[in-house]
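Quick note —
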Amino acid sequence: MADRRPTNRGPGRALVAVYLLFAIAASSRAGLQIATRFDEAPVAYLLSALAAVIYVVATVGLARDTPTGRRVAFGCCAVELAGVLVVGALSRVEPQLFPDDTVWSDFGRGYGFIPLVLPVIGLLWLRRTRARR
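Predicted structure written out below.
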């Protein structure tokens, strides 16, 4: 029988808490920007909203600690990492594409680079807590 550590215990609780914090922060920021200034930078604000959705879904996946939750969390972390790398690079080489910052702009500089590090930690945690045979 495979032995598996839960994703929502020990350091996993802190990871879930950070994802929840980012879900709230990104949702609040994107909601305000979309509601008040959407016409100024629609792509940037929609990317922030996408990041918020990813943070919410990743939080739920990590907190539930089911096989489906783990797959969902893995997918979210992978998409999040790809997003922060692509948007981060584009915001550096083509800044006019993002007239206003997103959560992922400049590799998450506005959030202390946590958006760059968080999915890496999430993926490593999911690997560390996977089933052992």
